[in-house]
Amino acid sequence: MTLTLSVLLLLGLCRSTISEEPSSSPNSPNDDLTFQLPMPNYETKDFSSSGSMNNLFKMVQIFLHMVQPNVFPKDILRELIQKKFELSMDYGKPESVVLTLQVVQYEIGILLCAILGLLFVILMPLAGLCFGLCRWCNKCGGEMHQRQRRNGPFLRKYYALTLLVLCVLMSIGIIYGFTANNYLTTHIRKTHKLADSNFRDLRTLLNETGSQMNYVLAQYTTTKERAFSDLDNIKTLLGGDIQEHLKPQATLILDDIKAMAEEIKETKELLLLVNKDLWELNKLIEEIYKSLLDVKSDVQRSVKDPTCSIPSERAKCNSIRMSLGQLDHNINLTQLPFLDKEIDRVNGVLQTNLSSLVQMGYNSINNIPERVQNQTTDIVSAVRRTLNGIGLNIKTIKQKIPIQDKLSVFLDRIDNLESNIYHELPRVEKYESYRWLGCLIICCLLTLIMIFYYLGLLCGVFGYNQNATPTTRGCVSNTGGTFLMVGVGVSFFFCWIFMLFVILTFVIGANMEKLVCEPYQNKELFQILDTPYLLNKNWKYYLSGMVLNKPDINLTFEQVYRDCKDNKGIYTALQLENIYNVSERLTIEEHIRHMNAEFKKMDLDLDTVLLNEEGRRNLLDFSVSGVEQIDYDTYLAETGKPVTKVKLLTYASGLKAQADKLPPGDLKNSLAWNVKEIRDIHFTKVLPVEPELKELHSNIQELQQRGSGLKVKVTNIVDSLDSTQKFITNNLPSIIIEESKEYADIIVAYFERYLNWVKISVMEKIAACKPVATALDSAVDVFLCKYITKPMNLFWFGIGQATILLLPAIIIAVKLAKYYRRMDSEDVYEDVENMPMKNMHKSASQPL
Description:
It contains 28 helices and 3 strands. It has helices spanning 2-16, 51-67, 74-82, 94-106, 108-136, 152-188, 191-232, 234-302, 311-323, 340-349, 354-366, 368-375, 377-395, 397-400, 403-463, 475-521, 524-529, 542-547, 557-565, 570-573, 582-585, 589-600, 613-623, 632-639, 648-660, 666-707, 710-765, 770-820, and strands at residues 145-146, 825-829, 836-838. A 3-stranded mixed sheet has the order 1-2-3, with no helix packed on it.
């Protein structure tokens, strides 16, 4: 019944979950657009028994393999199922006879054991009756007389030891019985909890399926919002990407042109400064030379004084006269032409605002994102409408795939099944209590027999006195023998009942283990059910015919169980694509084509001119403005000279020293005044001019640096400008096409990713049927096999072991009791030849 219930449970779920059309597909989250389907948590865990009990169960399995070594009879079972297990049908037909013989051949080991057990059941009571009558007639050891034998002590010890070993082995079997009985009862009590957890898991599966479906459909909103966000951000995503292709090279050349524009302005300022300084210094230096010329003329007049005619003073005056050449001109700035022509040319260049033209180039690059946004407004609106249309189709999926409706029907069946099971559970528990009590009585009776044997051995061994004769044995020894005989009597009285119970449980348990539990674990049971045309003559595959109404589709119980065990979705497990193909139905190819068509309509006008022809001519004009052709060497040579040939203070000091050597008079006074004048010229005129002259020299050097290679620099800039402009002109259309395609692919990929996730969710996540496999395992593998069959097999194994060993134990106990009980007569020896004479005490012997 349990097996049938389990199979019906699987079939019922299969049938009720065939919802014609689940939805589909893989989950490939990307970046921050990820999907994670919430999965329910189930209570029922895989059953695992303790290691010690497993070892006992395996021991019984080894015994069963010895008794029944035949492989699982698939062919026999198929024939029996086809005949609906009615072997009596057409019994005279050869095929029925052959089938019967095959069944007998497969069951030969179990049948032989059962027959031996039945012989035990029949013969043991008869043997006990005969044994009792025989002893009543003072036969079969019933006479209370013990003959003396030479090997008597050895036989007594041998019998005692043998009985002890047998009792230990029987005790082990009884312990197996107690353990199995307790294990079975304990786990049967867990059945209610096991059923509760399985039904809760099944309800969770049914109830969560709708929530999962709603969650999957709701994720379309997330996908659409992400796509809308990218559409709103087309300025950055598309325009920015296009800009990034152009900006590095364009910015580099525009920066060079902008620097050149600044250099033109600075060059003009420098030319003006040099020109101004040149004019002012020319004027100041002329004034210095005029003042020095006046001083020189005055000194020349002074040295014509009569004092210089004196021979002693003539040399001094001549020396002064000869030094006057040091006051002549040292530099001549008048020979340096002014830079008015160059200034005029640069001013002509500056008539064009090159910086403004460069800024226009910058703007043409920086405004690409904004221009893209402005030119794609209509396309973005059209794509939005398409995405909203996809959303309407997605919302209809739940109605097209009515999983929840089908599962709600199954929920009613689950309720009925649960109510039936809970209705029967009290009856099962009631019968289980009877079984437990019966097994406990059997174990207790066997334990009672063992107690008699153990007490007999204990009293017999410790109460035995070697010096006592059989007629003078002590009370303890005699009690031991009595216990042994009581044990023998109880054994005869109950052993056939024990064996009858063992036969019954052995036949049922062994066949359950070999025909249900083992083939269920290795899936051979499913292979039987999957035999074509077995369960329905018109259907090749029964499950596909029942679930899909297409019996030719290879849908098997084994495959469904395996998929559910792997926690795959009902859609995949039951191959529901044969009813409603999600991969074909759940597609947006038409919408994708429409979106791609809209994106292909993008005709972006992003013509970018870095510098127009006017700016280009402006650069070339600057390169020929004459700044590079100025004779900088001449300017630098003149401006690099000192203002005077000699330092005026040094000259004035020397002149004063010579004047001091002259005698007092007009000459000396005149020269002293000239010294004062020279010093005044130095401090008031030469010193202020020297820094200005150095600054002029520095400015000319800077101007030379700016003008050096000017034409080459401008030519290189113009060439780079032409190259960059050519790159932009030639590559911009392909860049626009490539980036537009990538942008469109991103938008489309969101929905392809979402639909793939929907497909994989429906196929493998939604309504994942592991609770179904768990429920089937709980019914068959756990409840039927591990809760009932295996402990029941261990019980008959232990009790059977103890019952079978009762037979030799009875024989040994009867023989051993003779050595412990007090006899009514004994053998005595009166002559040397040890001729025995029987003691003539006529006490009535009492057979057991």
